[in-house]
Amino acid sequence: MRTVYVNGEYLPETEARVSIFDRGFLMADGVYEVTSVLDGKLVDFEGHLARLERSLNELDMRKPDGFDNLLEIHRDLVARNGIEDGLIYLQVTRGSDGDRDFVFPDPETTPPTLVLFTQSKPGLADNPAAKKGMKIISIDDLRWGRRDIKTVQLLYPSMGKMMARKAGADDAWMIEDGHVTEGTSNNAYIVKGNTIVTRHLSHEILHGITRAAVLSFAREAQMQVEERPFTLDEAKAADEAFVTSASAFVMPVVEIDGTALGDGAPGPVARRLREIYIDESRKAAV
Ligand code: PDD
Description:
D-amino Acid Aminotransferase, Chain A, domain 1, about 290 residues, D-amino Acid Aminotransferase, Chain A, domain 2, binds N-(5'-phosphopyridoxyl)-D-alanine, nine-stranded mixed β-sheet
């Protein structure tokens, strides 16, 4: 049984409790982070912590008690659960004032809720899916307008994964005004010649922590990077494509809406960036 963290306590998962009035539960009034663990160490921890702080600020949410000890809490959970490879999920909500009201509760009297738990994923970096590559479909982007804030409003992304599954694909890319925004739970990239194209940062997409690291490795490796919107047609005509996220690292995409990219196998740029990202992350992990 897992040991999880709830508001200052380490508890067996079956004993952890959050109020039914918690605004995360009633209003999706919460933000989260997912940090990967390789060899028992945290990948890109500083980046996830910085983005969490930004998400809280953007929503006028108070920092939870324990915020300053988050590195220690992450490490404690890794140790207590014997995680070699896997993920740590962290969620902060605006807490519970014991009733339902659209108006935010007074942060002085209603503390945020802080929850963390682990997911063990042995061999996370050797995911066989990376050898095969993913098939994706395109769907309309029907999410709200502040996707740069990592909120727990994940119903539409969940529906997108189900649409993909129904269509015999692995995931979906979302389209707005004819351009790809991002994947349901990852950032999206195409490669044409020696150029990697990915949408620029704005309110329209999540500012991926893996994205930042991968783009800097790509530039170090003398690859050209263009941060701009790209269309679905451009994607289908690309030499290769891939996605990035804390849980998938760099994952090749081999098919879009039934159109095979290149020779239909993971491309060299995606494979190389995956290798670099995983190697460098292992080295830099805390
Ligand atoms: N998802 N875009 C969206 C919509 C995401 O949900 C995520 C991450 C990313 C990639 O961000 P990062 O590189 O910081 O993980 C982009 C996480 C992994 C999840 O929801 O499980």
